[in-house]
Amino acid sequence: MKTIHVHCPLCDFESSTVKISGVDRLIGGTHAFTLRFCDNCSMLYLDPRPDVESIPLLYPDSYRPYGYLRSRFRQIFRHIRLRIRAALIVTRLKPGGTILEIGCGDGELLAEMQRRSFKVKGIELNQAAAARAVQKYGFDIEVGTFTQAKLVNDSFDAIILYHVLEHLIDPLEVLKKLKKTLKCGAVLVIGTPNSDSLEARIFGNHWVGYDLPRHLFPFSEKKLVETLKNMGFKDIVTVHEIDTNSWMLSINWRLQASSGPGKKWLFRLLSPLFFFLVFPLALFQAVFRISGKIIVFARK
Ligand SMILES: [Zn+2]
C-alpha cells in the first residue's frame, strides 16, 4: 500500500500533532497508521493516508457494511436499529420527497425510506452491494463515487450520507457539491462517529469509530456543525444515537489486542454480559449528548 502526506482538510494548515496511532484491526497487518489533529483548527485527520489507488484495497467484499455474515440475533437488532434510525430521519423531512443516499450499501436504509413513501435513489461504490440493492428492492442505483455521478442541481429534497463522510478523501468538496444538488430548503443528513464521545476517550485506538485507516477524517460534533455553518447551512440539529454496537466492537478489539485474536471465544462467551452492561451506558451517552454515533441535520 502506498501512502501520501496530507494537510488539514479544513484549513490546509501544515503543522499537526499526533493524537493516536494503531493498526488496521478489521483487515489486519502490522502497518501503524497515525491520526493527527491540526495545530490550527484541531480537525482530526489520518496522515499519512493511503493514496487513491490503495483505498479500494481497504474495502474487500467482506467489509462489514456490505452485509457479510450476520447471525439471526444480530440481524434482528440491526433491523430494530435501522427502523429507529429511519424514523429519526423521517421526522425531520417533508413527506413524499425524493431522497438520495450516498454509499447506500445493500440499500437497507433506502428501503425503509421507500416504505415511508419517499422516492429514492442511491449511489454505491461497491458493485456487489449495489447489485444486491437493485435485485432486492429494484432501486435506481448508480455504481461509482458521488464525484463521478451526474446529478442535476437543486434536484433532491434530502441527501443522506450515513457513515460515509469520514471515508472520503475530499469531504469539503463533496459537501459543496451536495449543497448544489439539494433543493432550496432541502435537508442534508450526515451520520458519523463522534470523536468527542465517551467511547473515543475510553478506547483510544481500539475505538471502532476511528477504524484506521478507512476513516480519513473522524469528525467531532463540534467540528462538523462548525463546517456546515461555515458553508451556509441553516437549522443545524444533532441527534445522538443510542449505540451499543460500537461499544461491543470496541470491547472486542480491545480484548483481541490484549489476549490475541485466538481468544475470540472469550468475547463470544461474554458478549451477552457486555451487551447487558453496555445498553444503559449507551442510553446515558445519548441523553447527555456524548454518544459515539451522531446524526446531523442541516438545511440548505
Ligand atoms: Zn485545520
Explained architecture:
With 300 residues, this protein is α/β, with parallel strands linked by helices. It has 8 helices and 12 strands. The protein has helices spanning 72-90, 108-115, 127-137, 171-181, 198-203, 221-230, 245-259, 264-287, and strands spanning 3-4, 16-22, 33-38, 44-46, 49-50, 98-102, 119-124, 140-143, 156-162, 182-193, 234-240, 293-299. Strands 8-7-6-9-10-12-11 form a 7-stranded mixed β-sheet, with helices on both faces. A 3-stranded antiparallel β-sheet has the order 2-3-4, with no helix packed on it. A hairpin with a 5-residue loop joins strand 3 and strand 4. Helix 7 runs antiparallel to helix 8. The model has no long low-confidence stretch (mean pLDDT 90). Zinc ion is lined by residues 8, 10-11, 13, 38, 40-41, 43.
Category from helices, strands and their pairing: alpha/beta
Number of strands: 12
Q: List low-confidence stretches.
A: none
Provide the spatial order of strands within the biggest beta sheet. 8-7-6-9-10-12-11
Which whole number gives the mean pLDDT?
90
Largest sheet: 7 strands, mixed
- C-alpha geometry: globular
Ions, cofactors and other bound molecules: zinc ion
* Order of helical and strand elements: EEEEEHEHEHEEHEHHEHHE
Strand percentage, roughly?
A: 15-25%
Q: Rg from C-alpha positions?
A: 19 Å
Give helix % range.
25-40%
What is the number of helical segments per DSSP (H or I, 4+ residues)? 8
Distance between the ends: 39 Å
Q: Please state the oligomeric state of the protein chains shown.
A: single chain
